[in-house]
Automatic annotation (TrEMBL):
Organism: Natronolimnohabitans innermongolicus JCM 12255
Designated name of the protein: 2,5-diamino-6-(ribosylamino)-4(3H)-pyrimidinone 5'-phosphate reductase
GO molecular function term, any single one: NADP binding
Broad EC category: oxidoreductase
Complex formation: Homodimer.
Catalytic reaction list: 2,5-diamino-6-(1-D-ribitylamino)pyrimidin-4(3H)-one 5'-phosphate + NAD(+) = 2,5-diamino-6-(1-D-ribosylamino)pyrimidin-4(3H)-one 5'-phosphate + NADH + H(+); 2,5-diamino-6-(1-D-ribitylamino)pyrimidin-4(3H)-one 5'-phosphate + NADP(+) = 2,5-diamino-6-(1-D-ribosylamino)pyrimidin-4(3H)-one 5'-phosphate + NADPH + H(+)
Length: 220
């Protein structure tokens, strides 16, 4: 399995504002790059915080990229995955549409009635007691043939993935704006590291739109 985290931050490292509403930090060129990365992936993963805040579709938008996928024998769209301990994903969320298959990764703490509702719309994976055990959840996804994984956020999930050592690459678009706010989400939130900080190796820097794309691999 290969896990790429992709996100866009303001120049001061924020994913969104303190209102946690979706903000278009990327411009046209970067959104096109994101669409290509989705098209090259077997699955696109987000945390339930992003589903609740943004109601994303997580589909490939460019039809020619979908046709390319079909030509190489892949499903028209990558699968979508929500990391959601207690089953907070609304049953009318766009990520549960029939545009692509969806997996919801739950913990044992998800109530039975919530599971039954979600099971009408998604494949359910259970891993972990109170919170999703990411190592076990990602192993279950791999067993389903999902090898090339793109994670789109948000900051809580990204931190946890670094914490358990699941991230292979980080691709970050840094836009030319300041969002600010101590309560605004950043690229990696969670409890934060105080030692054994994950180390990155810079592989690529490219000017895109009015910002920069930075690409790192994670040192093991
Ligand atoms: N600019 C960008 O590129 C992007 C911006 N965003 C922004 O980020 C914000 C959302 O980010 P955030 O609030 O951090 O939410 P996340 O999408 O990271 O979801 C976090 C939630 O996932 C659930 N979860 C379950 N298991 C785990 C685990 N092991 N580790 C971490 N989380 C787990 C938790 O909820 P529970 O306990 O209920 O399961 C947790 O609160 C929004 O404002 C959105 O607009 C999001 C994506 C990309
Ligand atoms: N790459 C990127 N740049 C931004 O500026 C963003 N705001 C995001 N957000 C992510 O994209 C998701 C929306 O996807 P759909 O267009 O609905 O398919 C959103 O939920 C964030 O994960 N990404």
């Amino acid at each position: 399995m290969h896990v790429v985290v992709n996100a866009a931050t303001s120049a001061d490292g924020k994913l969104s504002s303190r209102r946690r509403e979706q903000i278009a930090i990327s411009g046209e060129e970067d959104f096109a790059r994101v669409d290509r990365l989705r098209a090259d992936s077997d699955a696109v993963v987000v945390g339930v915080g992003t589903v609740v805040a943004d109601d994303p579709r997580l589909t490939v938008k460019d039809e020619s990229l979908c046709e390319d996928r079909l030509e190489r024998g892949a499903p028209e769209q990558p699968a979508r995955v929500v990391i959601d301990s207690k089953g907070r994903t609304p049953t009318d969320a766009a990520v549960l549409s029939d545009a692509a298959p969806t997996y919801v990764c739950l913990s044992e703490a998800a109530p039975v009635d919530t599971r039954m509702d979600l099971a009408d719309h998604a494949e359910l994976v259970t891993a972990g007691d109170d919170r999703v055990d990411l190592l076990r959840a990602f192993a279950a996804l791999q067993e389903q043939g999902l090898e090339r994984i793109m994670v789109e956020g948000g900051g809580e999930l990204i931190f946890s993935l670094f914490e358990v050592g699941l991230v292979d690459e980080l691709r970050l678009f840094v836009g030319s704006t300041i969002i600010g706010g101590r309560d605004a989400p950043t690229l990696a939130d969670g409890t934060g590291f105080v030692e054994e900080f994950p180390l990155l190796e810079l592989e690529r820097v490219e000017r895109l739109d009015d910002g920069a794309l930075l690409q790192w691999t994670v040192k093991s």
